Predict the 3D structure of the following.
Amino acid sequence: MPRLFIGLELPAAQARALLALAEPGPGLRWQSAAQLHLTVRFIGELGEEQAEHLAAALSALQAPAFELQIGGVGYFGSPQRPRILWAGVVAPAPLQALREQVDPLILPWCAVDPQPFVPHVTLARCGSECASLQPFLLAQRGLRLAPWLVSAVCLFTSEAGPGGSRYSVLARYPLEI
């Protein structure tokens, strides 16, 4: 059963810049270039037929293209037990608007999570032996990557593997330019 999510691919230049931030540290599992993305909405596991219907429903998306910029860093979890180290988004309003346009299209297959949306690109996963992230957070607090035009949203599948999850694009949906 495929595990699905809707997200954005990163341009190569932005992915390279984020990969360059990687610092060795105990308990940190840095993402590879193929794992870098920005999730718009997590769907979860669906059967093949349901996934096909979802993919078809998303083709009705009519949203404008928008400029996006990665900036700032943070983490999920507590300072003593961080789980995820991430890079954020400078001005998330267009991304939030896209998410609000996606939500009605996915309702037949996915309950919309009411949790606040924190747009981010996962940089690293933190294991139990992860050291303090404070030095990294301080060093990268002014992070700003070059903005780019987001011209498509993607339906991804996620497969767990020994080196972490592998993501594949099932479908791309162009945004209106």
In short: Residues 3-174 form a domain with the Cyclic Phosphodiesterase; Chain: A, fold (CATH 3.90.1140.10). Helices lie at 12-19, 48-58, 93-106, 134-140.
